Amino acid sequence: MTVRLGQMMHVNPNYFDEYERRHRSLPTKFPQMKKALKEAGAHNYSIYLDKKTGTLFAYLEVDDIEKYKAIAKTEGCKEWWHYMAKLMDVNPDESPVTYDLHEVFHMD
User: Fold this and answer.
1) What residues are labeled active site?
2) Is 12 left (phi over 0), alpha (psi -120 to 50) or beta?
3) Where in the chain are the domains?
């Protein structure tokens, strides 16, 4: 069963362009992260930026929520978090501060 996830994060205003550039380079600079996401069954993944507030909205679908959450324990993920840490609000382990959203409507 596919699980749809919506999350909010925050990127610091001086880093909007850099945040986008680093995500564009993810397939070549951090192929292990893209591979981990694919292996965890993540797909249809998009991130949107509100340039007025620095708010990020992420949407993705996963086949297995526990398998997806396990990505956080991989070295590739930890390296990605470290690479992105100065650009955004992060937790002490450098993971992005995220707020999970509750889905109230979906239309196929």
Assistant:
1) 23
2) beta
3) 3-100
